[in-house]
């Protein structure tokens, strides 16, 4: 009886912790839609702010798709709240924050949002 | 040569970026042969900046000078999906003088409204300086088009027509076609009024 309960708990822990651990070890790409981003001179602050963040290894601004694309360092995470705060500090209006497993360069090269 | 030095030392009235992103410094300098401008500000939030502003007005009579500290506010920004619009206010306090006179306390008021998409640019800007001896105003209206939609890392090019009125000058209204280029944190404007007066503006964020 106790043996079955212990096995169930262990199974549940492996089921839940496994994907979480895997996503922490994978390099994630974060896409954020930003309104008002029409001028590259004015959007310099976005790159300046995100490059200073210890969890971010790469930043790209796509004016056509109105996207800020971030690459997280392996095992590190930038919180959604930090992303929206940085975008506001740069003078823009953040919209949707989306995390994808596609490589940073692939998301950057993609022509569709 | 003297004119060139003045241009290189002096920020253009219609190229101002009074508040930048939080923690940024912005340096703006340039002008025309008759009006030169130097501004440096630190944006301590994304809506407020504080810094130093100097202007020189060259005239057939007396030259006027202004130097002062200035605070700028981004009063309102509209971040739209395909456009951005801004309203700025600046207030300054310092000293102004005419050639041969002693400096007197002076004040500066500044207002700017602009609207920009990736292809269209419009801006209205007005700057007033007043002291016991000096009374100057610079008001400009600019319209611009971008011949192509530049991406973030590319060179941006704009073709702009600037109408500028400087009070106290011989010519009441200047029509200045100009080219604007920017890439990364660097911004340059080159122009020439229909009267043949050259314009040069430079701006950098750091």
Automatic annotation (TrEMBL), chain A:
<feature type="domain" description="HMA">
    <location>
        <begin position="28"/>
        <end position="95"/>
    </location>
</feature>
<dbReference type="InterPro" id="IPR036163">
    <property type="entry name" value="HMA_dom_sf"/>
</dbReference>
<feature type="signal peptide">
    <location>
        <begin position="1"/>
        <end position="22"/>
    </location>
</feature>
<protein>
    <recommendedName>
        <fullName>HMA domain-containing protein</fullName>
    </recommendedName>
</protein>
<dbReference type="InterPro" id="IPR006121">
    <property type="entry name" value="HMA_dom"/>
</dbReference>
<keyword id="KW-0732">Signal</keyword>
Automatic annotation (TrEMBL), chain B:
<protein>
    <submittedName>
        <fullName>Uncharacterized protein</fullName>
    </submittedName>
</protein>
<keyword id="KW-0732">Signal</keyword>
<feature type="signal peptide">
    <location>
        <begin position="1"/>
        <end position="16"/>
    </location>
</feature>
